[in-house]
Automatic annotation (TrEMBL):
It comes from Cyclobacterium jeungdonense. This is Lactate utilization protein B. Keywords: 4Fe-4S, Electron transport, Iron, Iron-sulfur, Metal-binding, Repeat, Transport. The keyword Kinase does not apply. The keyword Iron applies. InterPro entries: 4Fe4S_Fe-S-bd, 4Fe4S_Fe_S_CS, FTHF_cligase-like_sf, Helical_ferredxn, LUD_dom, LutB/LldF, LutB_C, NagB/RpiA_transferase-like. Residues 295-316 form the 4Fe-4S ferredoxin-type domain. The lineage of its organism: Bacteria, Pseudomonadati, Bacteroidota, Cytophagia, Cytophagales.
Amino acid sequence: MKAAPTHAAAAAEFLKDSERSHWHDETLWHVRSKRDVSAQKIPEWEQLRTLASQIKDHVLSNLDNLLLQFEKKAQANGIEVLWAKDAQEHNEHVLRILEENQVKQLVKSKSILTEECGLNHFLEDKGYDVVDTDLGERIIQFNKQVPSHIVMPAIHLKKKEIGDIFHEHLGTDAGADDPKYLTEAARQHLRQKFIQAHAAITGVNFGIAETGGFVVCTNEGNADMGTHLADIHIACMGIEKLIPRAADLGVYLRLLARSATGQSITNYTSHFHRPRKGKKMYLILVDNGRTKQLGREDFRNSLKCIRCGACMNTCPIYRRSSGFSYNSTVPGPIGSILSPGMDLNKHSTLPFASTLCGSCSDVCPVKINIHEQLYKWRQVITKEGPPQVSKRWAMRFGGQVMSKPRLFELMGKMARKSLSISPRGFVYNSFNAWGKHRELPEVPKETFKDWYRKNRNHDK
Ligand code: SF4
């Protein structure tokens, strides 16, 4: 099997189109700025973040009991609850439901969990036509791509490219890229799919242990369209998406949309409690590595994530290298913590795709210490991950030089000398990734230490 590219290699691919990378960076920074304005309008913003984090602490410490409470209440409401230990079991549950109910056509609203489980491919292989109904998801489904962002899946595409995709798949006018025109075309196309669908699959943003109900947030109302028209509703939920009480919901709803896009509330916050008369509702509770992450003391906080995407929008690495560079369902800083927990070898370069500036932790609405966990993963990977021979030798060498002042001085002298006489290609070549986009400052004639000895060291 072909090894997954390192983050740096995948990022270099995206960076080849420097205009797109620049524009991607600016677009996401704009979203981050909208988040700031929106957050600053709430005087109790920091208290909300603290509260959200504390409620999730409680959930993570009592997950077993809360899940059982949630299951019991949901079953009492007439929901069929299923448990899936991994992606395979999740997908098989969905397939069985579709087969038992003789479903031929289905629609799906945005669900990161079903992406994580590879549900679309699984069902397509069995002959099902899965229609993603979130506009961004539908665009990338047409384009045979995966989402590059968890909230804005097609953020890497420009208007003109979307116009071309719609022209090819929906027959819109060639060259037309007016968003209103394209959205209308998508609306007409999706209406038909909603009407024809026998089953609707949704994700779950919050499951409420106290009531057994759950909440799905969308900006387009596509989850509601799907579930209201289809006879079968299959909701797929990661087990960490629980909150204890309905009263806790307000805390998260106030944080979620503001952190994600700067909106004060998501357009559609839909509450589901029980199937409608004559219809069926299924809820699949998925582990897929979550209990393992819960058992890792240093990383369990990552399970507090409410998937707002704010850490991606602010991350200087994500903004320039796009979600594709992470080669993982959840990209960006939080993905770089979650993914190594699922497959350390495949994702061992992700925790290094960070400047550790801490901006991700600053914006996180549930106060996850993201940059600290990234740093922690680096330590784990250095000890347990795939060998990074060149890095290890470089560090060993650097450690030796820096721990011996005379050697350090000598190496500094040699480096200054050789830099001033070496041809440019000696420093700026394909082995020096740092030098691809940067210039070294002019080599100083003397070090600070030399200068200090001459000018300030009066004890001499
Ligand atoms: S880690 Fe925090 S900022 Fe990032 S997606 Fe999750 S909740 Fe949002």
